[in-house]
Amino acid sequence: MAKLLVKFQRYFRRKPVRFFTLIALYLTAGSLVFLHSGFTGEPTVSENEPNPIEGTSERTELQDLGVLQLNRGFKEAPESLNPARRFGPWFKSTSKDTAERSKVGDYGGTWSRALKGRNVREKEEDRAKYIGCYVDNTHQRALRGVSFFDYKKMTVFRCQDNCAERGYLYAGLEFGAECYCGHKIQAVNVSEAECSMECKGEKSNICGGVNRLSIYRLELAQESARRYGSAIFRGCFHRPDNISIALPVSQVMLNMSVDKCVDFCTEKEYPLSALAGTSCHCGFPTTLFTLHEREDEQLCAQKCTGEDFESCGTAEYFIVYQTQVQDNRCMDRRFLPARSKQFIALASFPGAGNTWARHLIELATGFYTGSYYFDGSLYNKGFKGERDHWRSGRTICIKTHESGQKEIESFDSAILLIRNPYKALMAEFNRKYGGHIGFASHAHWKGKEWPEFVKNYAPWWATHTLDWLKYGKNVLVVHFEDLKRDLFVQLKRMVSLLGIMVFEDRLLCVESQKDGNFKRSGLRKLEYDPYTPEMRKMISKYIKTVDTALKVRNLSGVPDDYYPR
């Protein structure tokens, strides 16, 4: 045997080409045998094993994702390793749906994507059923629940997921990037051809059209998911004088509970639910019922007849909740009908709440705000004026953080938003390292970034205000803390400077929608004070300088909570 191997070795050493040719033939033959075994015949299924083609609904979900290799000779991965699609408890699938989908079989590559694109609505009926294309407009929304926009990453599933998590029955997509939720469709059905805009986040799906909604009915797995647990407690209030006008819809409920009254008002599409003993009233916040004068909650402390641990108010003092129904009286927004020749600045130091103020102004006036800069993330979230040049004249005011004389003098008037520097610096540091609603990491706070940031930005906080007071024309000073504490009065001042006549009912609507999509969660707070004694000493000097400058101009000084730290 050894002699034979030596002969082969000498032979191929003299003829290397033949050696490599033999190796190539061997590999080719092996590949052909492998491919032949993988593509011929049907998969063998024993009597004790479930047929993979007639499998459970969990298997079928994997088929839809193209991860089952039904006709390949490979072993199936353990069930725990199979990447199941994230549906959630609010989806349901019937055995009939499962059987129909299992007949589809396995598809791969381009054919699978094409099939999915054509049949996406039928394929997704296990989680939501497509209802049709409906008319929508800014004055009378077809779906009157919550809404959100994403002009970059909107998908059908994302919209359905957000609406379902909040317990809504319907999810609608519009203009390729807008998502609306609701419990009732209040619009007429139109031709499918009118819903023709692709989703911004998935080109294979349709997300409505211009003033057209592609609406899905969410298939809830459990009826309990339809309870409105996210209703917001507003407080105890005295009975309005003209209750039939202030709260136009009411019903007697002998077995009263908070859930029953909130459910009733939600079904009637009202944002306020008022419990008055055994009576449930529904309506909007209006000048007849502003929700500005809260009473002592003890006056409303009467136990519900149908619930042991909740108060349901009395005939004179109402317990009020805000339902999931969105108050659409202030949701319409557009560009100015005629180009303005006056440029009004919404000026602030970074981190002072400029984006939030823009949100409030847009809701209050119905017109888009512009920006001295361009922030794609803000545009994608619905600030459509972000893309316009700041001198386009199509926006009601222009966001700016500039503080130079030349830049300030280019504006005809300004709203100057001032915030506590301790809060503003931390907010801007979070935005810089965590995004508009994110947070800086622990390493950033403890590293060299934070001290360097305070050193550079704290002086700017003072000079920004001083420059606008010195060079600005017709400057209205608004303190962020006052805007939070008394939004109705402060927003009224701001709108007045903008030259827009706004009804008080619209401002009351803004109060109920005040948070918007850019409120940073308060859940992640630092467990320590990041300011050193040296930092506080420096910032206190700047606060005194700004306070003096405001008082010299007969303006109210900085709020008391700026001192002490």
Automatic annotation (TrEMBL):
Gene3D superfamilies: P-loop containing nucleotide triphosphate hydrolases (3.40.50.300)
GO molecular function, one term: sulfotransferase activity
Transmembrane segments: none
Keywords recorded for this protein, A-Z: Repeat
Domain WSC: 127-219, 230-324
Superkingdom of the source species: Eukaryota
InterPro entries: P-loop_NTPase, Sialate-O-sulfotransferase, Sulfotransferase_dom, WSC_carb-bd
A Pfam family this chain is assigned to: WSC
Family membership: Belongs to the WSCD family.
Record's protein name: WSC domain-containing protein 1
